[in-house]
Amino acid sequence: MAFFTSKNRDDTPEKLSDDAVLVGKAIDGDAAAFGELVEKYQSFVYRTVFYDLKSHEDAQDISQEIFIKAYKALSSFRADSEFTTWLYRICKNTVYDYLRKNAKKKPLLFSELSSPEDGDREFDIADTSGNYDPEKTAVSNETARIVNDAIRTLSEEHRTIIVMRDIEGMSYSQIADVMSLEEGTVKSRLSRARAALKKKLEGTGLL
What we know:
By secondary structure, this protein is mainly α. Helix content is about 60%, strand content about 0%. The protein has helices spanning about 20-25, 30-55, 55-70, 85-100, 135-150, 155-165, 170-180, 185-200. Helix 3 (about 55-70) crosses helix 4, helix 4 (about 85-100) crosses helix 7 and helix 7 (about 170-180) packs across helix 8 (about 185-200). The termini are far apart.
């Protein structure tokens, strides 16, 4: 288990991931390096939080808190691990703490599934062809609304694994690391989650 120390912060970039290099620089006081990490993962953090809180305002506030916690805990990041899995744990722990302190039902809101920098995902339905069509865009927005609604009504286990794999595009190994599961178990749970989502979408006209 390799944590950042004065020794391994000097490792060459070839030995560390790009994220690990940025973490090392941030630990050494390079604010711009941490800024790059925030810019890279702010959408990931926001959407992860929003699917649990169902409130744009709360998601924005908690996202800021998560990055503050991440910055303060950078020295605990393992240089040989995935930054996304480390950051995801901070997200979930912060959300759980928030929900325990605010045990009341939040109003159900909707959000877009995709943004230009996120790339294609199974449920990313934004038109990236460059040919803007108002009618098609309206249909896509309605589809996103329906799918988002269905995802947020899934159980926490199903919702979490759908978001990690199909929305955020995390690998099976990353998900296994986050959830402390074998990759085979991740795949079987994902299959059940997708089946549950498909059932939720029956009768919506999307299938």
